[in-house]
Design brief:
The chain is α+β, with helices and mostly antiparallel strands and 190 residues long. The protein contains six helices and four strands; from the N terminus they run H-H-H-H-E-E-H-E-E-H. Among the domains are: 51 residues; 54 residues, Dna Ligase, domain 1 (2-Layer Sandwich), CATH 3.30.1490. Helix 1 runs antiparallel to helix 2.
Length: 190
Amino acid sequence: MGPEATFIVQLIIAVVFGAVCAAIAHSRGRSAVGWFFVGLFASCIGIILVLVLPDLKVQAEREERMRRENRRLRERLRKDRTVADRRHEATINRLDVHDDALGLDTGGEQTRISEAAIPTPPQPPAPVQDDGTEWYYLQGQERIGPVSVVRLHELWREARLNEDTLVWCAAMADWAEIRRVTKLRRVLGD
């Protein structure tokens, strides 16, 4: 086989690679002409490249689905806004009717809330101070202590003590429920 025959065989193989590359590219939404020349000159590499690149038809379909979904959602949002605006208007109208019946103007710009009507936020309780008293408490049948009033306060906040828990300190004649020990109730936060 001479050099001309070899060249013709190579040219036919290159054209086949170009045609295959162009067919694949066209099916994937890419330019068939451009990819024909890539396949013609790059042979196998051109086919691999066109197969590795993302399918433009699939991307276009995905983008179209997203556009349709966005359009549908925008339309739904517009309808929801319209319904909300109507409800708001109906509510304002009902309030105006009530205001007229009561002779008040609760929706006008002249309406002011007096500073006395604004509730003040609750102040945090003062921290519990240890007074040196040693307390004992019963947990089930077990006597636990001595503990400070600060520790009792922690147990109270953790709900490990309650009003029915029996407590005792040296200043007491006998065990008593927390609810009956006024000094302790004040500290624990009555």
